[in-house]
Amino acid sequence: MTPKVVLVTGVSRFLGGHLAARFAANPDIERVLGVDTEPPPRDLLRRMGRAEFVRADIRNPLISKVISTANVDTVVHASVTASPAGPTGRTVMKEMNVIGTMQLLAACQKSPKVQKLVVKSTSAVYGSSSRDPAVFTEDMGPKDLPSSGYAKDAVEVEGYVRGFGRRRPDVNVTTLRFTNFIGPRIDTVLTRYFALPVVPTVLGYDARVQLLHSEDALAVLERATLHDLPGVFNVGGDGVLLLSQAIRRAGRLNLPVPSAAVPTVGGFFRSARLVDFSPDQMRFLNWGRVIDTTLLKKEFGFTPRWTTQQAFDDYVNGRGLKPLIDPETIDAAERGILDAAARFR
Amino acid sequence: MAGARVIPLHDPERDAARRSRHVEVVPEPEQQQSATPDWERRLADLLSFARRRIAGDYQVDEFGFDRDLTENVLMPPLKPLYEKWFRVETIGLNNIPSAGGALIVANHSGTVPLDALMTSFGIASEHPAHRHMRMLGADLVFRTPVLGALARKSGQTLACNPDAERLMSSGELVGVWPEGFKGIGKPFKDRYKLQRFGRGGFVSAALKTGAPIIPCSIVGAEEIYPMIGDIKALARLLGFPYFPVTPFFPLLGPLGAIPLPSKWYIEFGEPIRTDVFGENAADDPMLVFNLTDQVRETIQQTLYRLLTQRRNVFLG
């Protein structure tokens, strides 16, 4: 079933905005509504074309009026986010994530026209610890429930979404658990982290990192909206990079920090406005997280075009990250040593 | 690529070889290889390894197994220990299939899990298919900094059913030491007495994936650090499952940490098939218990047989 009227939340951010732009370019969709608390940046707004921007706070019951008067039949909830707006933005972020979702779901429940709900969730709901299996499938849960931050928000959001699914069994609910996004255009905590000239890591740990190209993320969200594919799906690129390996591929220098000093260093980077890591993201740097995407390929019918490694390389090239040691220098050094060795034979 | 780089431009010997090859119809790659000395080829390998590491140009699987690092850095130091120190002899390597999932179940001993390292080195170096055994480790290993990261890079993963099943169904050779800390940290007087085999989780994983179970008996590892005492208070303080006291440790300090050079035998028994029990065999607890017992008994009997054949702990 192709939706007639689509409402997308979080359009002033990368995913929501570009998703609205894709829907606007689709002639089968009659109307595209984009909701956010602040207007999208100008270039994003231009891309969105005929999509209408509604400046509304999803924490406000007003959203219910928007949904019912516009006859929205499909809601794409893409505003659940891991990036706080600023140093004090963590409380606001939590409110937007959790209370916003509650209000939005309440509005959806009220409107009989709503036929489909697509939720952008995260694989952070699986947590990250040493006692976890290496690869998470959709039916696994976290060993210990995340006590704070984005992961906890996402667990709560998914709980409300499940509740909504029970109360409105006629609505197709698709929950997508994404890995971290990467790409030349998207701006996330991770893209800022790898762009640091010296990248701090936790001493003695090397996380397995699975990434998803932002274009693949958009394609998955689009597919979930245009087709009826209810269920919970893990979404991530194929393959794995070790954190140390990713830092080397980006040509950065690795700065191992002892566990005890991690909060201090994290605080420094936060106050310097370089990268804002929450404690659950710090844990992610310790253990990493890999998810199984069999269901995505078999049932959802989507195979990511970029593997984790390709997506990361695309990010490195697209951002123009210059390696601290030029690969040419390394090649030259290798040749030089071998030539010298040949002379000594 | 690496081979092509080491060819020097001006070398009379090689030039002669090249000229002679022009005349020949079939070029001989062997001759070309022998023209560059061995150490130079090794240097080239080393340099290309270093370049790969600096550029991050290698593959890691979803469990974190880094084959490049394991083969070039982690495995080589085990070679002298395996060949010269413990003089390990493997028996029945042909019982390990060359491809496809299989589960090696072995006895655990020796205070420090050198038996696991030696078994995996033995299979990687002496088995015709040079397979990497993917070991299942305790969560203590993965919680520990440095060690946990190294364990993952060397192909180990957490001992839990989802991981074991995932490895075996993707055709990997999995190694498990079901006695765990009870086996490795048992006092010297209990040597070669198998401890309880967990809850049989490894059997149900094998049943689910239909992978054969290969019982493996290791003789010699019990004597490397004869554990005559256990300082429980210190162990609790440090968060270890035990704190070993051997005749030389901690008495001689770091010197006491040198393992005794016992002679080792590692015997792989006949594979036990698990794909003959039908669909829901893993949900039959009685079958799981029986199979667990069968594996345990096989290992225990093989241990006794190997011990009666052994005349001297150090000479074999």
Short description:
Chain A: This is NAD-dependent epimerase/dehydratase family protein. By secondary structure, chain A is of the alpha/beta class.
Written description of the protein model:
Chain A: Residues 6-236 form the NAD-dependent epimerase/dehydratase domain. Chain A: This is NAD-dependent epimerase/dehydratase family protein. Chain A: It comes from Lentzea kristufekii. Chain A has 345 residues and is an alpha/beta fold. Chain A has 13 helices and 14 strands. In chain A, strands 3-2-1-4-5-6-11 form a seven-stranded parallel beta sheet, sandwiched between helices. Chain B is of the alpha/beta class and 316 residues long. Chain B has 14 helices and nine strands. Chain B has helices at 2-5, 12-23, 29-35, 38-55, 67-74, 78-85, 114-126, 139-143, 147-153, 161-169, 181-184, 201-209, 232-238, 285-309; strands spanning 89-91, 102-106, 133-137, 157-158, 173-176, 213-219, 229-230, 244-245, 265-268. Residues 15-32 of chain B have low confidence and may be disordered. The chains are: A alpha/beta (345), B alpha/beta (316). The A-B interface holds A 130-135, 137, 140, 202-206, 208, 210, 239-242, 244-249, 259, 288, 290, 325, 327, 330-331, 334-335, 337-339, 341-342, 345 and B 5-6, 8, 11, 37, 40, 43-44, 47-48, 50-51, 53-64, 66, 139, 142-146, 148-149, 152-153, 157-158, 160, 162-163, 166.
Distance between the termini of chain B: 45 Å
Strand and helix order of chain A: EHEHEHEHEHEEHEEEHEEHEHHEHHH
Strand content of chain B: 5-15%
Helix/strand structural class of chain B: alpha/beta
Identify the most extensive interface between protein chains: A-B, 40 and 41 residues
Low-confidence stretches of chain B: 15-32
Q: Kindly report the average pLDDT value of chain A.
A: 90
Global structural class of chain A: alpha/beta
Task: Describe the largest sheet of chain A.
Answer: 7 strands, parallel
Gross morphology of chain B is: globular
Number of strands of chain A: 14
Record the strand order, biggest sheet of chain B: 1-9-6-2-5-3-4
Low-confidence stretches of chain A: none
User: Proportion of β residues of chain A?
Assistant: 15-25%
What portion of residues of chain A is helical? 40-55%
Organism (chain A): Lentzea kristufekii
Domain NAD-dependent epimerase/dehydratase (chain A): 6-236
InterPro entries (chain A): Epimerase_deHydtase, Lipid_A_modif_metabolic_enz, NAD(P)-bd_dom_sf
Protein name (chain A): NAD-dependent epimerase/dehydratase family protein
